[in-house]
Design goal:
By secondary structure, the chain is of the alpha+beta class. It has a domain of 56 residues. The relative contact order is 0.18.
């Protein structure tokens, strides 16, 4: 199991970000993060010597933001979508 950072300000490589998010149940491949860095829609990152670095807190917030609230049935998706 990958180490999950306890400091939200720690910077992680794309591979480490993928590993840490996956360890928490947010399965995301390194290639997916790379694609989202090109096309948009991924967590914010910085470049250091040409290499992407993700702030752990930003990556975790991004993953949580894509997660729906708990549901009791599939029909709740229609109700939540209409409420937005």
């Amino acid at each position: 199991m990958a180490d999950i950072p306890d400091n939200p300000d720690v910077r992680l490589t794309r591979e480490r970000t993928s590993e840490a998010l996956t360890a928490l149940g947010y399965k995301v491949a390194t290639k997916t993060l790379a694609t989202k860095a090109t096309r948009g829609g991924g967590p914010p990152y910085s470049l250091f010597c040409g290499r992407a670095l993700y702030r752990w807190g930003d990556a975790l917030d991004w993953a949580r933001g894509l997660t729906t609230p708990p549901r009791r049935s599939t029909s709740e998706a229609d109700t939540q979508r209409g409420a937005a």
